[in-house]
Design a protein that fits this description.
Elements lengths: L1 E4 L2 E4 L1 E3 L4 H6 L6 E4 L11 E3 L2 E2 L68 H4 L5 E2 L4 E11 L7 E8 L5 E2 L2 E2 L1 E3 L4 E7 L4 E5 L5 E6 L4 E4 L6 E5 L2 E5 L5 E4 L5 E5 L5 E7 L2 E7 L4 E7 L5 E5 L10 E7 L5 E6 L4 E6 L5 E6 L4 E7 L5 E6 L5 E4 L3 H4 L1 E6 L4 E7 L7 E7 L10 E6 L5 E6 L4 E7 L5 E6 L7 E7 L10 E7 L10 E7 L18 E9 L5 E12 L5 E5 L8 E6 L5 E6 L3 E6 L9 E3 L5 E7 L5 E6 L2 E7 L5 E5 L5 E6 L12 E5 L5 E6 L5 E7 L5 E6 L2
């Protein structure tokens, strides 16, 4: 806001960050007086700078972008969203960086699950079932289908939920899935910028370099190429996502070249085919274009091909997921499509969530003992958030908001005040490129990371810096052939046998060359060919002598391992593998021991039998609708097991016919016990019983006879 009058320009400058350039250029006028909340900006914004200019001319008070600073003093005069990024360079010119929820899609930077986490504190940055502490996003990931494949990753269908997302896709509000990735080629045509929403709902942004090569923005390490009328996204695990000119995902290729192909009708995904096996998933929709069920390979347990079914409420929220065996999940939401409760099909409440008025998840109660409450009261003015776990222990997170748009944790203080309790990370430092340069742990240990390459790989790591246990480790990575894979080529450090000369090293080399010669990594491929370990050791006389061990890997054309040859000379430590045309494992041949054979695969890639090196065959008789083995026979003796609707073991029967049954606590026992094992009962009625505290820890383990008389009891505190 601004006030221009005869007394001059008394202007309040509110911004996401202290723009050091602006402050330094106007030292005569500006003074940082503190961080305060301003209703016109998001909660986590703004040092206020109060400039007092000695001018009466109203033109000198002109404020083009309405940020409260006169254009003549404004380092960003065309910055409509007041986030410190000029509109010409701003991917989201109408939405400030870090805004909690917005229609432009910029908030999706912090959704989903990044393969390279922004911060090593990420594990504790998502407490409970999980909530991202610095924006309150409730994140959920569930695997609905998993089928064996020759692919780098199995043939899967996973779901992902982000509570802060307003995306209403084919699984309802907030949900995305494995094949839901999409590219918007017209995101910002003026600046030649594109956006990809990945399968987890996370937004990634790329800038064209005028040659069809798109580099990642906001410190994103992946890149996109315009190829043959399509867009190809090169991911860090070696996969390529190929989008057509409209932005639909049409192909996923692993690092060897194995493909998943996708087909559409009217913009809706119809089929996904694993070309390495010929297996296909087919998608069917209801009248609201929501996925109603998915068909997959026919098996003995899934004769109708329906692997999973989905149901929705009138608000287009996903409310039910049912697998072929009858197990699954039921979901509840509030009026803002925020997930509030998750149950299994036995009615056990697995987790509940609550949200504040800004839509941030601020509490979670679950049956895993990881319940949390999150206090955002000091986030606006102090950039701190307090997370209290189920034990009542409070931890204060310090958050910063760098100009790349990704909020990150820089500290985590334990409320107990204990400076040496555990080895958790308590402080993080970053370099100018957003790479982690230093970590400090609760026990005082400091690790340093230096000499980063262009892909963000630290080539020098110093652990336990400044102590007697300090180690310096040097790394090299492939930065030429496959930089997107972040392939580690060497690791080198001083040997413990070095007496101070600095000349005796131990080294590991990962050789990706397919020529198998004596010079490693002349032309790296995506597949590891050799592991070379060399250094120095002591011989029988105590003299320092060199050593070198080499393990060699060979592959079939589809990338499946053909052989592993250990460091012993000859074939005495070589293991070989064979597969059928669908990539199913047929044999494993080990030296001296012999060959193990697998056979009788069903359409989902489950083996029907295995014959060991002694010629004894175990038959895998039946699987359930989730590909879990239910019965098997060896030497004429059959074992069985069953599962309940919660997906837990219901019973097991051994080859002698002796059965054990498993019972679980229901909803009446409270969420801390919901779905947990209650008792195991033998055929005579004797049983073991378990009890739990409010944090789901076992507190009592007792044995009883059939008359409920206690035989033995163990209690825990």
């Amino acid at each position: 806001m601004s006030a221009c009058n005869s007394g001059g320009c008394n202007i309040v400058y509110a911004t996401a960050y202290v723009h050091v350039g602006a402050v330094n250029n106007q030292n005569a006028y500006y003074g940082v007086i503190g961080k305060v909340l301003y209703s016109g900006l998001p909660k986590d914004y703004g040092y206020y700078l109060y400039p007092f200019h000695e001018y009466d001319n109203v033109n000198e008070c002109a404020d083009n972008d309405g940020d409260g600073i006169a254009d003549m003093y404004d380092t960003h005069p065309y910055d409509n969203d007041n986030d410190g990024v000029d509109d010409s360079d701003d991917i989201c010119p109408n939405t400030p960086i870090g805004t909690l929820v917005n229609s432009s899609g910029c908030s999706d930077l912090s959704f989903g699950s990044a393969p390279e986490q922004i911060c090593p504190l990420e594990k504790i940055a998502k407490p409970g079932n999980p909530i991202t502490v610095y924006n309150g996003n409730k994140y959920e990931s569930v695997s609905d289908i998993a089928i064996n494949s020759a692919q780098q990753r199995n043939f899967v269908f996973n779901r992902y939920y982000n509570s802060l997302s307003d995306f209403n896709g084919t699984l309802g509000y907030g949900w995305t899935h494995t094949y839901n990735a999409n590219l918007d080629p017209n995101f910002n045509t003026t600046e030649n910028k594109i956006r990809i929403i990945d399968e987890t709902g996370r937004g990634l942004y790329f800038q064209d370099q005028s040659d069809g090569h798109y580099i990642g923005l906001f410190n994103e390490k992946t890149f996109v190429e315009a190829e043959n009328g399509n867009f190809v996204w090169y991911r860090q695990d070696g996969r390529k996502y190929i989008f057509n000119s409209s932005g639909l995902l049409i192909q996923i290729e692993d690092k060897i070249g194995n493909d998943f192909t996708l087909t559409y009708s009217g913009g809706l995904l119809q089929t996904v085919t694993d070309e390495s096996t010929g297996r296909t998933l087919a998608f069917y929709y209801n009248a609201n274009q929501k996925i109603e069920y998915i068909e997959g390979p026919v098996t003995s347990a899934i004769s109708d091909e329906i692997w999973v079914e989905y149901a929705y409420d009138t608000n287009q929220n996903l409310t039910s997921v049912t697998y072929a065996d009858g197990s699954g999940y039921t979901y509840q939401y509030n009026g803002s499509h925020h997930l509030t409760q998750k149950e299994d099909k036995s009615g056990n409440i697995l987790s509940t969530w609550a949200y504040d008025s800004l839509g941030r998840a601020n509490s979670n109660v679950n049956n895993k003992g990881k319940s949390v409450t999150i206090n955002y009261d000091n986030y606006a003015d102090q950039d701190t958030i307090v997370v209290t776990d189920g034990y009542g222990v409070a931890r204060t997170y310090s958050i910063e908001h760098p100009s790349d748009g990704k909020s990150r944790i820089v500290g985590a203080a334990n409320g107990s005040g204990c400076s040496s309790c555990g080895e958790g990370i308590v402080r993080v430092e970053y370099d100018d490129n957003g790479e982690v340069s230093e970590l400090e742990y609760a026990n005082g240990r400091i690790d340093k990371f230096q000499s980063f390459d262009t892909k963000g790989n630290a080539q020098t790591v110093i652990t336990a810096f400044g102590t007697g246990s300090e180690r310096t480790i040097y790394y090299t990575y492939d930065t030429t052939n496959h930089p997107e894979l972040k392939l580690k080529l060497t690791q080198r450090e001083i040997s413990v046998l070095d007496s101070g000369s600095g000349t005796i090293f131990k080294e590991t080399i990962w050789d990706y060359d397919d020529d198998y010669d004596g010079t490693p990594n002349e032309d790296p491929t995506p597949l590891l060919r050799k592991i070379i370990e060399k250094g120095f050791t002591l011989d029988s006389s105590g003299s320092v002598v060199p050593y070198e061990y080499v393990t060699t890997f060979t592959y079939y054309s589809n990338g499946q391992v053909q052989s592993i040859d250990g460091p012993i000379a000859g074939s005495y430590d070589t293991t070989g593998f064979t597969y059928d045309a669908n990539g199913n494992l047929l044999t494993v041949t080990q030296p001296v021991i012999g060959t193990t054979t697998y056979s009788g695969y069903d359409a989902a890639g489950n083996p029907g039998a295995v014959t060991d090196v002694n010629g004894v065959t175990t038959s895998f008789n039946t699987y359930d609708g989730r590909n879990r083995l239910l019965s098997w026979t060896r030497n004429g003796i059959t074992n069985t097991r069953s599962y309940n609707q919660s997906g837990n073991i219901g019973s097991v029967t051994d080859g002698t016919g002796v059965s054990l049954t498993f019972d679980y606590y229901g909803q009446a026992a409270g969420i801390s016990k919901n779905g947990h094992l209650w008792k195991i009962t033998d055929p005579l009625g004797n049983y073991l019983a378990y009890d739990y505290d409010t944090r789901s820890n076992v507190t009592d383990s007792s044995s009883f006879n059939a008359s409920d008389e206690s035989r033995q009891q163990s209690r825990y505190d």
